[in-house]
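$ ./design --mode recover --in tokens.txt
reading tokens...
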């Protein structure tokens, strides 16, 4: 059943979430705040009854998935890697909306044939990874979806030591950190958005409004 069919029949919009056991609660609340029903899981199979997908943050992907030896990646969770690549394949094939957050953006890029920077250089890492979120500005491409949602130079939150390197098929970088690596990617023909920051916990004066990304996700279904 298509997302439009769900909406026409008055069924609630259901959003599949894939994350880790101790890290799903904020994503669940973010989906609930925009009026949708979260369907959370750990290494879940693609659920054709869901209208959209959120790939949540977490650990590093196995560098073998993008043709590299380990150069600073943390030990991978291969079961989660396999599950989330399968989720990406299913929802892109179904042409349903996908939001990839932090690791989720990296999963999307790797699924589409891209690569990752396995370990940011120490000076950059200090500006993007800490025990708590590190806040910094990014630059959004003029006319991009992210600029429409967050503005040209929003303040966002980081907690990562890896980043997208070579872009995958069909995606373009549309937001960048001051150091030059991608903070956002958008697909050229599908409702697919990836961000390196964490909109599920991004809010407050001068710090953007992370709910705009979840509202976009649901808005794609309601169109």
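writing sequence...
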């Amino acid at each position: 059943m298509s997302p439009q069919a769900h909406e026409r029949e008055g069924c609630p919009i259901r959003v599949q979430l894939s994350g880790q056991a101790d890290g799903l609660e904020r994503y669940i609340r973010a989906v609930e705040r925009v009026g949708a029903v979260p369907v959370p899981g750990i290494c879940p199979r693609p659920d054709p009854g869901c209208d959209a997908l959120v790939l949540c943050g977490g650990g590093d992907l196995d560098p073998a998935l993008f043709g590299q030896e380990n150069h600073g990646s943390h030990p991978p969770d291969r079961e989660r890697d396999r599950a989330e690549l399968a989720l990406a394949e299913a929802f892109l094939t179904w042409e349903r909306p996908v939001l990839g957050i932090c690791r989720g953006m990296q999963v999307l890029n790797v699924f589409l044939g891209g690569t990752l920077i396995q370990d940011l250089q120490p000076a950059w890492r200090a500006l993007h990874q800490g025990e708590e979120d590190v806040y910094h500005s990014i630059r959004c491409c003029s006319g991009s979806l992210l600029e429409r949602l967050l503005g040209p130079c929003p303040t966002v939150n980081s907690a990562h030591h890896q980043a997208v390197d070579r872009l995958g098929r069909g995606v373009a970088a549309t937001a960048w950190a001051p150091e030059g690596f991608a903070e956002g990617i958008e697909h050229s023909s599908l409702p697919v958005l990836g961000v390196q920051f964490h909109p599920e916990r991004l809010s407050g004066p001068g710090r953007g409004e992370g709910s705009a990304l979840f509202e976009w996700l649901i808005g794609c279904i309601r169109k």
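exit 0
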